[in-house]
Specification:
Elements: H1 10-27, E1 29-33, E2 44-48, H2 55-62, E3 68-72, H3 80-86, E4 90-92, H4 99-110, E5 114-117, H5 134-142, E6 146-153, E7 171-176, H6 191-216
Helix pairs in contact: 1-2, 5-6
Organism: Streptomyces natalensis ATCC 27448
Domain Phospholipid/glycerol acyltransferase: 44-154
GO biological process, one term: phosphatidic acid biosynthetic process
């Protein structure tokens, strides 16, 4: 449940998707590849690399289904707090075991929704080099397929006010990969099983990122 005692709203996430479509296609030039690889129904986890400040909204606007993202609690300030909760997004405390966020995220998957996760935990190089265990937990517990997503933004212009955001009207490539099961089929959620699932996930995400760069012609440094 959210802080208001209600489950994250699928209708709210649908509104968020429409807002994302308007903003992302209005301000940038997204090129979407492989969106058909996202299952049209049922629970699914989108595992997204995170190197730009617009990665979350970009996915909300380009994914074929409404997405509930786990977003750091620091973003829920002032008027953004009710807005983000209203569009079905999930607040998470990255510095502690956030049971409320876990319950909300599991609930999204149990209801057949789409959960968006930045498995690196925070914005960085966006190369999936360091993964947290949260993604493995949700994937193994729910049995939902993990669809890797690479967001590759333009860095051709360097004189920008905010280097974390691609230049306006710049091309941003969003590449969806093949879904896969993170678990070994046993259903085990032991620490060893989750560690093995995390390694399995990292290998698949890293391979997808390399393939996405090949398909789009992006340099490895992006």
């Amino acid at each position: 449940m959210t802080e208001s005692g209600r489950a994250p709203s699928e209708a709210g996430a649908a509104v968020g998707r429409r807002i994302g479509i308007g903003l992302m296609y209005g301000l940038w030039r997204p090129r979407v590849l492989g969106a058909w690889k996202v299952p049209s129904a049922g629970p699914v986890i989108l595992a997204v690399n995170h190197s730009h400040g617009i990665d979350g909204p970009m996915l909300m606007g380009t994914a074929p289904r409404p997405v509930h993202f786990l977003i750091k609690k620091e973003a829920f300030v002032g008027p953004l707090d009710p807005f983000l909760r209203g569009i079905g997004q999930l607040k998470v405390d990255r510095d502690a075991t956030d049971r409320k966020a876990i319950t909300d995220a599991v609930g999204v998957l149990e209801r057949g929704g789409v959960l968006g996760i930045f498995p690196e935990g925070t914005r960085g190089e966006g190369d999936f080099a360091s993964l947290r265990a949260g993604l493995a937990y949700f994937a193994v517990r729910s049995g939902a397929p993990v669809v890797p997503v690479a967001v590759l933004g333009s860095t051709d212009r360097t004189s920008r006010l905010n280097p974390a955001i691609p230049p306006l009207r710049g091309r941003v490539d969003v590449v969806f990969g093949d879904g896969f099961q993170a678990g070994d089929g046993s259903g085990r959620r032991t620490r060893k099983a989750l560690d093995e699932a995390t390694v399995r996930i990292q290998e698949r995400l890293t391979a997808h990122l390399a393939e996405a760069r090949r398909l789009t012609g992006r340099r490895p440094t992006l």
